[in-house]
Structure formats: structure tokens, C-alpha cells
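Form 7-S
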Amino acid sequence: MNLLKKTVPFLAVVCAAVCAAGCNNKTYGLYTNMQDGFKVVDGSFKTELIEGYTPTERGGEAPDCAGYTTQGRTYFSMYTDATVAISANFEAEGAQDRFNSFLAEFKTTIDDIDKSLSTSVVNSDVSRFNAAAAGEKVQISKTAYEVISEAKRIYEVTEGYYNPALYYNVLAYGFGDKHRVMTKEDLPADELVAKYTDLSSHFGELQLIRDGETHYAVKPEYTVEAAGETLTLHIDLSGIGKGYAVDKVEKLFNDYGYEFGYFSFGSSSMLVKRHLGGAYKLGLSNPRSSSRKPYVETEILNEKLSTSGDNEQFYTIEGVRYCHVIDPTTGKPVQTGIMSVTVIGGSAAEDDALTTAIMAMGKEKAISFVKEKLNDRRVIFTVE
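Output:
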């Protein structure tokens, strides 16, 4: 996913390059509920429209931006880059100090979320929950409480297709260790995968308790015996955490009165405000292109979005692609034919979880889900 500047010559070059490189390639499906307002720039994608989307006003009158320039910073958080850019009149009295204050609060916000949700930080809320015994009541932060609450809600809305309790499945397929090289012999046995998947299906039994300003999570009683161990339910909130952070950063933008700029968290979750020239042009990268050239473009203004795909973290064994998105119905990396999903609009935390769920649904169920449940936001997904 990339943000393209509003430069017509540059876009013309990109379009020509895509056609030259991809017109004779395999044809893929592009499914979207946008009836217009997008442009397919890669001839290897065939568009099919999904009914049900109701357009909403995203603009509003732009303020005077005379004298505005852009400043940005990139930090590292949640194992990825967090890039924020602000356009403002930095020559105005106090403007630079205000921006520096914003950056400090921005950094604190994303770091606090990371420390709360990380599975690798020993004392994080998630790590302490994972280490707890079956049925144990664990005190957690407000951040963890809010994220788990949202995760439970979307788990229900998607009928379990978004499930943050597939923790052991992710590890079994080698995605908990970025340096691990998987071979055919390393792939987990079906019996072991089935046990992990059975355990994950009890995520809905996780209970949340709020007592005034104190928050708790109660681990399900259910356990499984696998690989000589008694395993309790573990969770991994990385599939919703970056979106949650984007929602919090949007509040910072609004609190500081910043109307121009964007925040990109690992290029998978984003807040997009205004470009100095109006709307940004959003280019979605072809998930089967090594050059990451866009296959579709659309304008985006004052919206949040998230993208999931099988091309970011994956490996191939004997011609089979194994990616980090796990299908909760099989417990294995998704093999649904869906290559990538982008959801634009609404809450970024919701979008983050929804894109993961749609990846696992498969084409027909995804079409029905988008039509029935997501008519308030724009959705694009690609099928091999």
C-alpha cells in the first residue's frame, strides 16, 4: 500500500509500466463494493462489483494552507515502521514547539500500546494473560481491556473468522520467529494443528470484567494436551493492535488541530487526513508483483484503512504458499484464494481485524459478508 502524490505525469508512467509488465500475466479477480471512484491500473485484474455500499461524505471545505510545509518522523514500534507526517505553517509562532509536543505524545502513545499488547515483553498485559493458569483472573490495563473487547466483538460479527487465539497455530507454522527458515519437515502434523485449533475455538469464553477503573481478563478453563504439555488459551492482538493505535493517533491529530497529513503503521493500517492539494491518491500494491506496483488507485480523504495480504509474511514449500494469516476453520495458513483485502472507512481497529477475517472467508462468503455487513465502508479484495 502506498500514498501517491498528486502528480499526473508520475501516475502516467506508473500506469504504462504496469501495462507493459503485466498485460500478458495471469488474470486475477478484483472484487469491490465501490461502484465508482477507483481506477484499475493493472490489466491482469478483472473487476466484479459487489452491491450494498452507501457512499458517505468524506471531505468538507479545506482551510487556507498558505505557507504550509510538511514535516515527518519514522519510529519503530510493534516490529515495524510507524511514520507520521504533518503539514502546517511551521513558521507561525509556537508551531514548531507544538509539533514537537505532538511528536512526544505520539511516541508515548504507540509505545504504551506496544508495551501493553506485546507477546514478547514479559510484563505486558498480553504476556501476563498468556502465562496465567486456566480460569485465572488477570488484572490488565484499560488499553488491553479495550482492544480485547473489540476483538471479542469482531470475533462474533465475523462468526469466528477473526480469531486472535490462533497463537499456537501461528507459531507452529514458523511465524513467531522472523529468522526461522521452514522446510517440509518443519510443518506441523495435522493432529497437532487440530489440537491448537480446538483450543483457539474457545476464545469466546474469555471474560472481561470492569470494576470502576480496574480491568480484568479471565482465562477460559479449557485446556488441551499437546506435545507433552497442558496448554491454556493464548492470544496475539497484533492483528488489531496497529489499527487501535491508528485510532488513538487520529485523536491526537484532532486534539492538536492538525488537518493535513497522515500516519502509516507498517503500511498495513493508516490514517489519512488531507493532502495540501486536496485528497491523497492511494495505490494498492499488486500482491503478486515483486516490484509492488499498484493494481488499483482511489482517492482517500479524512479516512482510516487497513490491508492484509498473503504476500507480506510467507514462504513456499513445493509450490504451496504458507502465509501468516491463519484460517480458523482449518488452523492452517489460508488457502482460500484471496490474496489481499483492503477496508477503507470506519475504525482502523475494526478494519485491521476485518481484513484478516475476510482473507480466511474465501470468495463467496467474503462477497456475502461485505454486501450484508460492510455497506458503510469501501472494500477491495483480490482473488487468485
